[in-house]
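Let's do one together. I've listed all components of the complex below, 689 residues spread over two lines.
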Amino acid sequence: MPQLTYRKALNEAFAEEIERDENVVLIGEEIAEYNGAYKVTEGLHARFGDRRVMDTPISEAGFCGLGIGASMLGIRPVIELMFWSFSYVAFDQLFNNAATVRYMSGGLLNVPIVVRGPANGGTNVGATHSHTPENFAAYTPGLKVVCPATAYDAKGLMKTAIRDNDPVFVMENTLLYGQKWEVPEEEYLIPLGKADVKREGSDVSLIAHGRCAITCLEAAEKLKEEHDIDAEVLDLRSIRPLDQDAILETVRKTNRAVLVEENKPFCGTAAQIAALIQEHAFDHLDAPVKRVSALDAPQIYSKPLEDEMIPNVRRIIKAVQEIT
Amino acid sequence: MTKKTSQAASKRAKTKTAGGAKKSTASSLSRDEKIKLYRDMVRIRRFEERSLHAYQQGKIGGFLHLYIGQEAIAVATASLMKENDHIITAYRDHGQALSVGMTMNECMAELYGKFTGCSKGKGGSMHFFAPEKRYWGGHGIVGGQTPLGAGIAFALKYKKVEGCCLCLLGDGAVNQGAYHESLNLAALWNLPVIYVIENNRYSMGTSQKRSSAGAPLARRAEGYDMEWEVIDGSSVYEIRDKLAPFMDRAREEQIPAVVEIQTYRYRGHSVADANHEKYRSKKEIENYKKNHDPIMLFQRTLQKEGILKEAAIEEIDREAKKEAADSAKFADESPLPPEEEIFTDVYWEVDHKTGRNHGRLFFND
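Okay, and this is what the predicted structure of the assembly comes out as:
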């Protein structure tokens, strides 16, 4: 099976969906002639032209809202945010209009958009460019939130997101764009709301999404080698819809859970998952549910400190050791 | 994308020539069409008055932004819409709803929060929609609909449909960033959208002078190299005459524009606005009612044209009052949305049971 970068896997997903559906349009800053700030859309403008791959001005509220309006008439915009941090200037469009217009119209409308881009820290760029708003989005009924961890997942989930008839927010990761995974040549789709056991284990469940799932895999190897602890890694893949069954299944299997996320701890994604576990699998727990979140302060610029701020192998192992 | 090269200074002249070059649209209206415009204005006013009564009775909750005084804009804009034209507005949306053909029953029932309402009681006063009539709401956040209007125009252009989008906004919305971003995109991408500012002089309780730098408000379009015009909103004919050429050019040449229609609301910003006679004088309100009322002025025009007789005026009014009263009765007697409706119309994929999504989408227990 060929190895593809996360970036290239997404690129293939876009190309295939543009070819499949006349209404799929990519819009965003620097995605066309510049080939993408992170080169995720590289070559697509040359291949598909102005009509299907459009550069926008730096105007997130404007082009996100434009995409939402166009989608009400059946266009399927795939909107790139150079960083999800920039969604904050488009908040009203994304969190009021995209999320609620179907409900407020009593089901007369739907908004088949994808809004996508990187949402991560760890890149030494300071607080304004390091936000991870998957919890904001997942908090909002009407929205769906997807956080792929591998190239394989990124392609399969993106293709599903583009075909989904509701607004889907896909949160990628700049630190994953250049990494390679096996991706089949034949077409495949991954449904939203289906978590993936990325490593089987019996002693503790590491539950994560996005790049944290990859960090958990590294931690699991080390736990096995150095501490003889066999960790299972469950990658949620999407936050809403959420594969609650898979979460409960792994907890019932290992009886211990460490939730790993790049969200900050207060009202972050893991807080919700911890609530679900205690509510539905309380009797299966042999220890308190632990969380490894980003440290609760604005993202720090200084790189060595930022590396401590977001979940890393050391912090995950420490949390596991506290409950095993 | 094509950039317009003409100088901003010539934009106005070109607009004026274009606006005045065509014959009055009144001459193309049949007698019945004129009476319909009049009747629809009266229907809006009587609907609004009846809804105010229901609010005072405690039958309607929430916010109620009445359109009384601005009726000419709704009927004139709707009357200019051709089969591929679309319209979207803000939260003072009842007038547009009735003008595009939504029934009083579904509108009043929505105000009552009933299942028979146009949004099944899920949207309320500010959120009326009728996509089959190409009416895209009904939006509650000031200026929030302005990028959507550009998007509707984008979709028309993308699909190569010869149509345009009228995107209405209030004078308060011109200071929102989203509006300016929309103007830039509309001009940059040559989108067939016309931003129609309904300038009723007050953004809630703040007068134009206290909220907006520079006048007229439509002139800001020059910064985006867009055409613009100011229109007297008390005259149905004038709105039609001056707006129609902009719509033609939007449809045929994908040229966006901004028009500012000067109007006045007799009631407060919403019914909850207790200060509406404090931030403006009673005298000012009376002046508009006596001298600029769009219904009264159009009535006189049609009387002069010999189209409308006293008996017909009375009959139209009587019928509108009855229609409004009947709609209140309909709303009152209609059922509430069943409780399970709380969880429908959130996700299309759930409503259509596609099975495409696994896992949980709702987290109630």
